[in-house]
């Protein structure tokens, strides 16, 4: 080889190395509006490559950002672009992350253009994949589905697949402050409460659940605290009426769902998010699997048993209008995945459904965020004119009537107004003020100005409210006034509210073993259901209890 060529090669190599060594590493801060405020990220780049993304600050709901950010980070790093699919179940948080990254990259010299709700990857072509086989498939990754999967594994089943149509798990449970109807808990015992299955059954008898199901729930509730604690889940704050929180200042839902997700992963459960159950596979009357899709990939999961835990339909306006006319006018506090996907599947396969017209309407949710709000009695409910128009104490049987009265107010605006006394007594209110969901004013005049309510009217309303409490005049809207006067000393707080569908009560009919029944009340072989998808008066804790029972019973069926 000629000497000149060698020298040129050395020079070229040195130049290339120099360029490589000269690639600058940058750390760029980007900001984007999320669901609850600004999301700030630190984007680390090397040349044009995105090396890493760090979450600097945010005001998002903790159990959403903690699940969504790792997925968004992985997608953006993989595609080297903020133009990726959002995390389903966390759309606005995802958009905030994408906008923050795009902002940082633009400052660094690369413009990805405007990020909108429609910003996503091109759709993949439709593919039909080969079937896969497993012992048990669970449709739905909320409280009931996770409990079922964990229970099945604990009872010795090796092959368990859990599918969830959203990109994140835990359904509506991760939002819940309270975990009701838990008995024989450490928290109860520490405050001297003695509870029993018999007491539980007597207190919870109702027309929707059979006595056998109520007994099964009571027995499950008696063992539940121990089962949760074995997973490291601790509900240490008891505040009466069988209600529990993780701590006095920590929601139960986040503690429970984080713990169950962690346990499910430790047990090696095959969890497939972004995967929707489409239909049951039925042969000779027996349920032997589920048809599913992941984006545009379709395939069958063949199994020895199926557990359906897909939740209710409070986020499906068409089904609400069909089964409970008028409720379609309300927002829901439930998560967006509560769309009743398997109701049509049950109907076409002659599977029994009942009480689809029964709703749990929560009196007050925040108009903008859909969070449950409120902190007990002692507040004033006023319209945009600053006038009271109904009783603040709403009878359970008149919640739909109250919901319609709220929507009928001028401009459809109603405000939940409260004083420092109520604020100090409620962690939920304190949390919502801290998050910026509620407005604070040092005086009632300042608060009324911020909420655009006539000052004179609001002050007059407060004074009349107090006269009713003092017995100086009859309260126009309440038979029994609140006992403590509304404070004349600030600070004061307020938030726009309306009523919301918290959950649907009706659903597929199951027995105390979670075995699904057909229209003739016969067991559908190989099919189980738990959680809000079922016909039941019970709620969050019952989803976990019956999810656990479903896992146990499915394993017994499979092993026999």
Point out poorly predicted stretches.
Answer: 1-20
- Compute the number of helices: 16
Overall mean pLDDT: 95
Q: Globular, elongated, flat, extended or rod-shaped: what is the shape?
A: globular
Structural class: alpha/beta
The spatial strand order of the largest sheet comes to 10-7-6-14-24-23
Total DSSP E strands: 24
Strand-residue fraction? Answer: 15-25%
Largest sheet: 6 strands, mixed
Radius of gyration: 27 Å
Give the helix level as a range of percent: 25-40%
State the end-to-end CA separation: 78 Å
Verbal overview:
The protein has 560 residues and is α/β, with parallel strands linked by helices. The chain is 35% helix and 22% strand. The strands form six sheets. The chain has a six-stranded mixed β-sheet, with helices on one face. Strands 15, 17, 18, 19, 20 and 21 form a six-stranded mixed β-sheet that branches. Strands 4, 5, 11, 12 and 13 form a five-stranded mixed β-sheet that branches. Strand 11 and strand 12 form a beta hairpin. The longest helix has 20 residues. It is globular. The N and C termini lie far apart (78 Å).
Could you outline the blueprint of secondary structure elements for this entry?
Elements lengths: L2 H19 L3 E9 L4 E9 L2 E9 L4 H18 L11 H17 L19 E2 L3 E2 L2 E4 L3 H12 L5 E5 L21 H5 L6 H8 L6 H20 L6 E2 L5 E2 L6 H15 L3 E4 L1 E9 L2 E9 L2 E6 L2 E4 L8 H7 L7 E2 L10 H6 L4 E2 L4 E8 L13 E4 L15 H9 L6 E6 H6 L1 H8 L4 E3 L2 H8 L3 H16 L21 E13 L2 E2 L6 E3 L5 E7 L10 H20 L1
Parallel strand pairs: 4-13, 5-13, 6-7, 6-14, 7-10, 14-24, 15-21
Antiparallel strand pairs: 1-2, 2-3, 8-9, 11-12, 12-13, 16-22, 17-21, 18-19, 19-21, 20-21, 23-24
């Amino acid at each position: 080889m000629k000497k000149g060529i060698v020298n040129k090669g050395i020079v070229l190599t040195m130049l290339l190395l120099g360029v490589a060594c000269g690639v600058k590493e940058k750390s760029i801060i980007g900001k984007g509006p999320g669901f609850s405020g600004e999301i700030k990220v630190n984007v680390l780049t090397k040349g044009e490559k995105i090396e890493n993304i760090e979450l600097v600050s945010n005001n998002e709901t903790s159990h959403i950002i903690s699940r969504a950010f790792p997925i968004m980070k992985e997608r953006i790093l993989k595609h080297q672009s903020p133009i990726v699919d959002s995390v389903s179940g966390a759309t606005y948080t995802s958009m905030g992350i994408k906008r923050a990254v795009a902002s940082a990259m633009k400052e660094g010299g690369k413009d990805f253009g405007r990020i909108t709700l429609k910003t996503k990857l091109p759709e993949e072509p439709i593919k039909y994949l080969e079937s896969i086989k497993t012992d048990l498939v669970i449709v739905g990754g909320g409280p009931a589905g996770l409990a079922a999967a964990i229970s099945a594994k604990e009872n010795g089943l090796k092959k368990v697949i859990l599918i969830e149509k959203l990109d994140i798990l835990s359904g509506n449970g991760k939002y819940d402050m309270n975990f009701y109807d838990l008995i024989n808990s450490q928290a109860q015992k520490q405050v001297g409460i003695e509870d029993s299955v018999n007491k539980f059954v007597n207190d919870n008898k109702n027309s929707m659940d059979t006595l056998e199901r109520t007994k099964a729930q009571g027995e499950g509730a008696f063992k539940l605290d121990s089962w949760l604690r074995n997973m490291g889940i601790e509900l240490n704050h008891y505040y009466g009426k069988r209600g529990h929180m993780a701590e006095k200042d920590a929601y139960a839902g986040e503690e429970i769902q984080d713990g169950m997700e962690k346990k499910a992963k430790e047990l090696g459960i095959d969890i497939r998010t972004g995967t929707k159950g489409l239909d049951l596979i039925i042969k000779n009357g027996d349920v032997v699997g589920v048809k599913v899709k992941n984006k545009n990939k379709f395939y069958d999961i063949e199994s020895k048993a199926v557990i359906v835990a897909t939740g209710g339909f409070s986020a499906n306006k068409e089904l609400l209008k069909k089964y409970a006319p008028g409720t379609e006018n309300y927002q829901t506090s439930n998560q967006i995945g509560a769309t009743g996907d398997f109701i049509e599947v049950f109907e076409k396969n002659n599977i029994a459904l009942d009480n689809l017209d029964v709703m749990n309407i929560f009196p007050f949710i925040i108009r903008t965020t859909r969070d449950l709000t409120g902190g007990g009695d002692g507040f004033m409910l006023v319209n945009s004119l600053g006038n009271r128009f109904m009783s603040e104490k709403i009878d359970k049987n008149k919640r739909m009537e109250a919901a319609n009265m709220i929507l009928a107010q001028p401009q459809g605006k109603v405000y939940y107004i409260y004083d420092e006394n109520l604020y100090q007594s409620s962690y939920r209110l304190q949390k919502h003020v801290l998050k910026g969901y509620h407005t604070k004013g040092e005086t009632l005049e300042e608060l009324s100005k911020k909420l655009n309510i006539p000052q004179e009217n609001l002050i007059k309303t407060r004074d009349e409210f107090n006269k009713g409490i003092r017995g100086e005049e009859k309260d126009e809207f309440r038979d029994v006034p609140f006992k403590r006067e509304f404070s004349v000393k600030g600070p004061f707080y307020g938030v726009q509210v309306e009523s919301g569908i918290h959950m649907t009560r009706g659903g597929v009919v199951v027995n105390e073993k979670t075995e699904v029944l057909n229209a003739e009340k016969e067991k559908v072989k190989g099919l189980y259901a738990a959680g809000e998808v079922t016909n039941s008066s019970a709620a969050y804790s019952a989803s976990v209890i019956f999810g656990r029972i479903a896992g146990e019973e499915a394993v017994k069926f499979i092993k026999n």
